[in-house]
Amino acid sequence: MERFEKHTGIVAPMDRMNVDTDQIMPKQFLKRIERTGFGQFLFHDWRFRPDGSADLTFELNRPEYKGASILVAGRNFGCGSSREHAPWGLADFGFRAIIAPSFADIFFNNCFKNSILPVTLHEAQVAELMARAVENPGYRCTVDLENQVVTDAHGFHTAFHVDPFRKRCLLNGLDDIGLTLEYEAAIAAYERRLEVAFI
After folding, report:
1. How far apart are alpha carbons 118 and 95 in whole angstroms?
2. For the domain that residue 137 is a member of, what is the CATH number?
3. Fewest C-beta in 10 Å: which of 10, 87, 118, 171?
4. Which domain holds residue 42?
5. What is the pTM of this model?
């Protein structure tokens, strides 16, 4: 899993509440067995018109947000079904952090397992970041996991909370398999003892 320490990137504002996982990754694209390649389907029903052309009114299709890697959204982001394809798509599209007033629990947990940092801020702070992104094309901010702050070059500075265990996992790029492998020596020693016991 890719580490997350400190990331600076273009901010894309999505001033919508209750963005659910079926909009993030529509169900017709869940048939793939790979974990990669889902970025092309991200927000498909919002990004594209019925004829397949890009809907230029949608946030992620606008030129000022091209290459955005930080998404700022409304409360209850990631609600709906538990599909892990939603963070797969966000990560594959290039997002490293999502900032919102609140997240759906399962989506929130899945982000940490896919190298995405979900940051919970007060609604007024989220609104301020959105306003800055709208008013300043190409607006960038920095999400610093080590120091647990969100900053920009124009004076915005706020702290955020993150569970210490999840922080350690992201800082070190540890998913469930990586966490298990931290005990590889102990596991190998146990297996050797089992082999001796059954000889």
Report:
1. 11
2. 3.20.19.10
3. 171
4. 6-197
5. 0.91
